[in-house]
Specification:
The protein contains four helices and two strands, in the order E-H-H-H-H-E. It starts with a strand and ends in a 6-residue tail after the last strand. It is 51% helix and 8% strand. It is globular and about 35 Å long. It is mostly helical. It has one domain: 434 Repressor (Amino-terminal Domain) (Orthogonal Bundle), CATH 1.10.260.40.
Amino acid sequence: MAVCYNKLWKLLIDKNMSKTQLVKAAKISTNAMAKMGKNGDVSTEVLRKICTALECGIEDIIEIIPDGGNQ
């Protein structure tokens, strides 16, 4: 299974927010942001901080893709 952060990127567009602004607002590392940019794994703490900063649920920022899925 793989993770996909397309929902997060769409949410940032809707909120007119840049990735840099999210890093500052959520107090996460640029390294974590880079991992998400490559659909890599990040800690639940990072996801929680993002949800808190964006006032959303985890289902609003991440999607789990079954192996072989296209996204």
